[in-house]
């Protein structure tokens, strides 16, 4: 399986984002597309997933929260991809915890815009807090890919907010670059890097899955969520690894070895898992 390189990590540290090409194989991409399309159809038909789907500025659905808790056959196994476990160990630390997951999609012809912003809960420290963005489709300027301002994750808060407001009035920000992606690519973006996207007027559906990641030690430092919520997240990740190991894709050639951080529970096969895992504030 593909691993993130030291050069890609260095690029991320300098720019606040990095594109990692050719991570997912065709068999996983096929399942990703089919299952995510089914969830989107469920949302558009006002089915169960619609209750967890947010709408954007144009009032069209685009952001399905708590992805694992919306029954599907791809997201838990995607979380357990060895590329993700390896990069989190190296970039966050061995006490990493996958903390949130969502499916974001831009519908053809009328796909929601996403104004310039930093992600919520962005701390003021030096930690590498970022999202892992996994793409099953081409994401281009034509179908409203995400744009980023390289290096803006290092800006002071006031400067970042001033530029975000400027971008809401005129999307074209100085220095902004498009993060154009191909199917199977992964984008890492720091929670403090300025990013946004325009409305999708093309005839193409664009999808991406976001995984937000933190660590046990960072949570103890910043008191984001109660320890019980972190414990549930660790159990969910252990279950995800088991599911991928026992139900692999044909191209899988390795699994990620994971040991729960000290003090967190060990999941045993057959035990029930809370797939919603609400992040209860500390």
Structural class: alpha+beta
In the CATH hierarchy, the architecture is Sandwich
Q: What are the secondary-structure elements, in order, as H or E? A: HEHEEHHEEEEHEEEEHH
Unreliable stretches, pLDDT < 50, 5 or more residues? Answer: none
Number of helices: 7
| Inertia-based shape | globular
Describe the structure.
The protein is an alpha+beta fold and 282 residues long. It has one domain: q2cbj1_9rhob like domain (Jelly Rolls, Sandwich), CATH 2.60.120.620. Helix content is 30%, strand content 19%. The chain contains 7 helices and 11 strands. The chain has a 7-stranded antiparallel sheet with strand order 1-9-6-11-4-3-2. A 4-stranded antiparallel sheet has the order 5-10-7-8. β2 and β3 form a beta hairpin. The N and C termini lie far apart (37 Å).
Provide a brief overview of the structure.
Helix content is 30%, strand content 19%. With 282 residues, it is of the alpha+beta class.
Which labels suit this protein?
single chain, 282 residues, alpha+beta, Jelly Rolls, 7-stranded antiparallel beta sheet, 4-stranded antiparallel beta sheet, 11 strands
Can you lay out the helices and strands and say which pair or pack?
Layout: H1 6-15, E1 17-20, H2 26-44, E2 53-55, E3 61-65, H3 75-79, H4 82-91, E4 96-106, E5 114-117, E6 130-134, E7 147-148, H5 157-169, E8 177-178, E9 186-190, E10 195-197, E11 206-215, H6 216-222, H7 227-246
Antiparallel strand pairs: 1-9, 2-3, 3-4, 4-11, 5-10, 6-9, 6-11, 7-8, 7-10
